[in-house]
Amino acid sequence: MSADKVKTMLLIMDGLGDRGQETPLSAAKTPHLDALACKGAVGFMSSLGLGKLPGSDVSHLAILGYDPYTCYKGRGTFEALGAGMDLEPGDVAFRGNLCTVEETSEGLMVRDRRAGRDDYRMAELYAALDGMEIEDCVVKVQHTAEHRSALKISGPGLSHEIGNADPHAEDALVMKVEPKRPDDPASVKAARILDTFTKRSYEILSAHEANQDRVSQGKLPGNIVLCRGAGFYDPPEPFEQHHGITACCVAGGALYKGVARFLGMAVFDVPGATGTAATDLAAKAKMAIDKSDEFDLVFVHIKGTDAFGHDGKFAEKAAMIEKIDAEFLAVVKDHFDLIVATGDHSTPCSAMHHSADPVPLLLCHKDARHDEATRLTEAECAKGGLGLVHGIELMGVILDYMGKAEMFGE
Ligand code: ZN
Ligand code: ZN
């Protein structure tokens, strides 16, 4: 490690931005964030560009310096990698739920998308499907928590351009998996394999002893696995080669760990980091500090802010921001030479879903340009010196302050 190393942290508070005269950021008491804003410079970050509504997965690709329009091939790969599953190029991965379905004259009807949301003997049910061979493909299944799982199909000539089996609703029929590109043999084949898997999962699980036991105990049977969000594994150039620096990820949510693994970043499991509002932020702070000697960049993701935005819970979102300030930023703020903090997108409580509004952005470094802003809020960021930074440009801004940017021209 050289003496002039710039210890750097990129903090993403998911869904941080909001709308309205008063926002969770402006309502929250954030003395540590305020101190960073006074010392540093603020502005806005737009992960995909103005008016473009981003999912968390593509936002993170952009923020980490990868063009999502070329390297994003579905969410399932991130979920599977984040669950610790190993993928080979060409694999197609999914998220899956054990569901409760009932045979009706119209077909299989979903009665509970989570089969009661417990995990009693669900690991055994998933294990009964693991390794299923269909044509020249193999399906691997990994139970994650409660009714949830990650799955992958390995075999030649597959595509992720297929629909879901999961209708995303109850009292709705299990969907026939359709190719999104009926003229593409890979799309047709992948749809056929997943459709076969879905049907066989029902045959195997509805006869499984663990389900008879569940029913005898008054629980719902987990009698089918319904998949969604197919992703194709085609990893881009790893982060270290792409940017010339090493990086690690400190996150609780599987999606974010999966994005980091997809980009070849080191990923550490933090005990107590759950990807929910109850996450152990002190443990994350300790991990971020512990890893800052070994890695050039520590990427930290905190999920709770987004979840409260989706639920329309303004006070809880503000309280989550206060918790980040008190339990995380208070600990790390004097340890790093460069702190860049933002969200991946806005999740306004009034909208209860993601919006395309640019997100407040903070850059704190001893040589940051001074601006008039004294807090990291939507209104203060409008006075900020950073202006509007596009997601794909943010890593360049960070590398420049790290002294790692490559000059173009002479
Ligand atoms: Zn997000
Ligand atoms: Zn969200």
Helices and strands in order, then pairings?
Elements lengths: L7 E6 L10 H4 L3 H9 L1 E6 L9 H8 L4 H4 L4 H7 L9 E13 L2 E6 L9 H6 L4 E3 L2 E7 L4 E7 L17 E2 L11 H22 L2 H8 L7 E9 L6 H5 L3 E4 L3 H9 L3 E3 L12 H11 L5 E6 L1 H8 L2 H19 L5 E5 L16 E6 L13 H4 L5 E4 H12 L8
Parallel strand pairs: 1-12, 1-13, 2-15, 10-11, 10-12
Antiparallel strand pairs: 2-14, 3-4, 3-7, 3-9, 4-8, 5-6, 6-7, 13-14
The structure holds zinc ion (2 copies).
The site of one zinc ion (ZN) has 7 residues, from helix 3.
Commentary on this structure:
With 410 residues, the chain is an alpha/beta fold. The protein is built from 15 helices and 15 strands. The strands form two sheets. Strands 11-10-12-1-13-14-2-15 form an eight-stranded mixed beta sheet, with helices on both faces. Strands 3, 4, 5, 6, 7, 8 and 9 form a seven-stranded antiparallel beta sheet that branches. Helix 3 runs parallel beside helix 15, helix 5 packs across helix 10 and helix 11 runs parallel beside helix 13. The longest helix is centred in the middle third of the chain and has 22 residues. It is globular, with a radius of gyration of 23 Å. It binds zinc ion (2 copies). The site of one zinc ion has 7 residues, from helix 3.
